[in-house]
Structure formats: structure tokens, C-alpha cells
Design brief:
The protein has 362 residues and is an alpha/beta fold. The strands form 5 sheets. Strands 8-9-10-15-12-13 form a 6-stranded antiparallel beta sheet. It folds into 2 domains: 9-259, TIM Barrel (Alpha-Beta Barrel), CATH 3.20.20; 261-347, Sandwich (Immunoglobulin-like), CATH 2.60.40. The protein has helices spanning 35-50, 97-110, 126-129, 158-170, 190-194, 198-207, 230-250, 254-258; strands at 9-12, 17-20, 55-58, 117-122, 143-146, 178-181, 211-213, 260-262, 270-277, 280-287, 293-295, 307-313, 329-331, 335-337, 342-347, 350-354, 357-361. It holds the Pfam family Alpha-amylase.
Length: 362
């Protein structure tokens, strides 16, 4: 089956043959077992490398090569409904020959004097996805991102978020670096999926270990659905964008680039993320539900002090108990979060990376 639940084979009247079309009739699959096709791709990569592009993003890297016998794949469920998710894609996803292709492409990139980047977008298990990094002797992909985050919506639980980060981060080899795709042109807009959680999701992925991959416009809350109140839209977008810009600045902080990652309080209704190093760090707290909640971080991590400075909060809760305390120290034993409210706290001296050197601000 193709991803739309239809037959993956499409008849071509001119050639009197079927062609494989995993992503739809308008997108024929290349036969990457054919040496002529592989050589053509290598020529294309070489051409663009010589034009001094920085690298390539291989979208749907898990689907590059199919089993050579083109077996039918078994159903996961007994009802055998024609649904792509009901099929166990053992013959079409994450075949080991995919790694051979990445090795060929990386060898071309390594022949150039300037460093080139090879990015892999994967959709298989986290365990198999780590294979796209290669090994320390011959690294393959510079970044491997998964599409799990592009499916989250306003019903996401804290437990699901922790599982996602913990499982994917643990499967990244020591020489690799994780990445998170939170939006793309093939998915509904992030704001349309998560609503008032937009700022909270940005706080999480921008400060988590890894590289976030966003879709242009999601940073200021572009929606998939029209809204007639243009004044209200402009105010919300400005607020979202200001928060996103501040988060971009914080990504250069030493605690974010080198700190450990912990999850002090996680329930189905709450998610929190802690990045810290040498008594310096950041704490993100997000209320995922419509009911207000009060959090007590006492004893949840040895890295957390009793008080921290409120740096940011989601812009749609100006009337919350934290609204007048931005840039002020607050006690972490009594943090009130309104419905779908998110807040970012900092503690310790300000440590930044500048020209490769640490700078300490007291």
C-alpha cells in the first residue's frame, strides 16, 4: 500500500508496466538499486557541491530502497483494513542498503575542502534511525531528525513528550546530535495543532538537547485556518515571535549547548524540562490542560535551587499570577500555571559562549 492506503503500484499505459509509487501516483519511486540511477544522483550531488551549497536534506530517507524481491508486507492488525498504518513495513522502510547510499553521498561530500552537511529525515524506530549516523570511523548523516513531533497536537501528554525525548536521545550515538522536526509543509500548521500550547512547545524544543527544525511561519503562529480578527492576529503573532527570538538567543547559552537534561515533574497534564550545568540552568514548565495547576519543584532535582528568575511566559496569559514577575525571582515551591500556560525560569550566573570561550556574568 502507498501512504494513502491505495495500491503502491500504478499502471503506465505508454510503457505497459507498473511503477512503484509509495507517496502517490504523481511521485514514482526511483529504482536506487540500478547503478545508472545511483550514478546520476552522485553526479547531481557533485554538481551542487561544486556550486558551493552547504549540504543536502534527504527527506523520507527511511524509504530510499525497497526489498529486492518486492514482497507484500504483512498486516499488523487482523481486520486487514487498507490503511498504511495497519501494515508492518519491514520490506520498504529502513533497509540496510539505505546506509550504502548515504556512504556514497558522504564520500563525495568529504572530497571537498569545506565541511558539508548531510541531513536524514527518518520515520522508522529510534533504534534503526541511529544507524544513519554511521560510526565514529566513518560518520554518515550530520543530523538525523524524526517526524514524531510534527504529529503532536493539543492533546499531547507530558508522559508522551518525556518518552519521545528520552527514547530518541538515548539512541543517538556519542558522536551524533539529535534533531526534532516540529513542522513541515505536509502537516497542518503547528498553531493549528497545538493552539495555546504554541509558546510552550517552542520553549521545550528550543531548549532541549538537539536541533529543532521548524516550518517558516510557525515561529509567530501562522494558522492553517483563516481568522477574521486581523488586529487580534497581529498582536498574538508579535507576542509569539518575541518569545521565539528570545529562545533563539538562549540557545547559545552554555547550559543549553552543554548542560544535562532532566524532567523534574512529568504527568499526563504537565511537562517540565531542566537544562543545567555548574549550578546554572533553565527550567521550562508547561500546563498541557485547561485546568489551572500549582507545581512544587522542591526535591525534584539536585540541580534546582529554591528560587529562580522568571524569564518568559506564554503571551496569552497576561493576567496569570506570574504576569507581573517577569525578570523577578520566584519560589519554585509554589508555581501557579493557568490553563495551557507555560513559563521559563533561569538560575545561577549567566554563562554564554562567545567565540568559543566561556564568559561568566555575575
Amino acid at each position: 500500500l502507498n501512504i494513502h492506503g491505495e495500491s503502491a503500484w500504478t499502471w503506465n499505459e505508454e510503457r505497459k508496466q507498473f511503477y512503484l509509487s509509495t507517496f502517490g501516483k504523481h511521485l514514482p519511486d526511483l529504482n536506487l538499486r540500478n547503478p545508472l540511477v545511483r550514478n546520476e544522483l552522485k553526479d547531481i550531488i557533485t554538481y551542487w557541491m561544486e556550486e558551493d551549497v552547504d549540504g543536502f536534506n534527504v527527506i523520507a530517507a527511511s524509504h530510499l530502497v525497497e526489498n529486492s524481491y518486492l514482497f507484500n508486507e504483512p498486516f499488523l492488525m487482523s481486520n486487514k483494513a487498507k490503511n498504511y498504518k495497519n501494515v508492518d513495513h519491514v520490506f520498504t522502510i529502513d533497509q540496510y542498503e539505505n546506509l550504502d547510499l548515504f556512504a556514497e553521498w558522504k564520500q563525495i561530500m568529504n572530497s571537498f575542502s569545506t565541511k558539508k552537511i548531510l541531513i536524514a529525515g527518518v520515520s522508522g524506530s529510534s533504534h534503526k534511525s541511529r544507524l544513519y549516523y554511521g560510526n565514529e570511523t566513518f560518520p554518515l548523516a550530520t543530523l538525523v531528525y524524526n517526524t514524531e513531533f510534527s504529529h503532536i497536537n493539543e492533546n499531547v501528554t507530558g508522559s508522551k513528550l518525556r518518552w519521545h525525548f528520552a527514547s530518541w536521545t538515548s539512541d543517538v550515538p556519542s558522536f551524533g546530535w539529535p534533531a526534532w522536526m516540529i513542522g513541515s509543509k505536509t502537516k497542518p500548521r503547528l498553531e493549528s495543532r497545538v493552539g495555546d500550547l504554541l509558546d510552550g512547545i517552542h520553549m521545550i524544543v528550543m531548549l532541549a538537547k538537539g536541533t529543532p527544525i521548524t516550518f517558516s511561519g510557525d515561529e509567530f503562529g501562522v494558522s492553517s485556518f483563516p481568522n477574521e480578527d486581523n488586529t487580534q492576529i497581529s498582536m498574538k503573532r508579535e507576542s509569539h515571535l518575541n518569545i521565539f527570538r528570545k529562545l533563539l538567543e538562549l540557545r547559545n547559552d552554555y547550559a543549553v549547548t552543554h548542560g544535562i537534561q532532566q524532567y523534574p515533574i512529568v504527568t499526563d497534564k504537565v511537562f517540565s524540562l531542566l537544562r543545567s550545568i555548574n549550578s546554572k540552568g533553565f527550567l521550562v514548565a508547561v500546563n498541557l490542560r485547561n485546568d489551572p495547576i500549582t507545581l512544587d519543584f522542591t526535591g525534584t532535582s539536585s540541580q534546582l535551587p529554591s528560587k529562580a528568575t522568571l524569564m518568559l511566559q506564554s503571551g496569552h496569559f497576561e493576567s496569570s499570577s506570574l504576569s507581573n514577575k517577569v525578570q523577578q525571582k520566584v519560589s519554585l515551591n509554589n508555581i501557579y500555571l493557568g490553563p495551557k500556560h507555560s513559563a521559563l525560569f533561569s538560575f545561577g550566573p549567566s554563562v554564554n559562549v562567545h567565540n568559543g570561550r566561556k564568559r561568566l556574568k555575575m
